[in-house]
Amino acid sequence: MRIKTKKIKNKLGKMILFIARHDFLICLFLIFLSLVFGFFLIYRYAILEQKVKPEVSVQNFQIKMDTYQEILDIWQKQEKISNEANSKEYSNPFKPVSGLTE
Fold it and tell me: What residues make up the domain containing 74?
């Protein structure tokens, strides 16, 4: 199958001419379309949400003590490692070393 480029160019040219001739009406149509879409969004997420209240379910919250203890141990180990890293002193790599001759 061959693609007929002359037909495509002809139709594309006609569409561009149609848009150029009716640009004001197309702008009005796009503005109207955006207003309708904006109203739909406001209705859906603001007005409709005020009318319908979601049900709030209260669930009991229970902590598994063994899992909680494991997490506390991990946090304490990480805190210990972090404190050890803070107390180390590293040498300055930009300070010239004494004793070397240039």
Answer: 5-85
Q: Is residue 45 part of a domain?
A: yes
How many domains is the chain partitioned into structurally? 1
In whole angstroms, give the CA distance from residue 26 to residue 22: 6
pLDDT tens digits, residue range 24-34? 999 999 999 99
pLDDT-based confidence at residue 62 (cuts at 50, 70, 90): confident
Give me the chain's average pLDDT, please. Answer: 86
101 is a domain residue: no
**0.85 exceeded by the pTM?**
no
Does residue 95 fall inside a structural domain?
A: no
SS3 per-residue string spanning the chain: CCCCHHHHHHHHHHHHHHHHHCHHHHHHHHHHHHHHHHHHHHHHHHHHHHHCCCCCCCCCCCCCHHHHHHHHHHHHHHHHHHHHHHHCCCCCCCCCCCCCCC
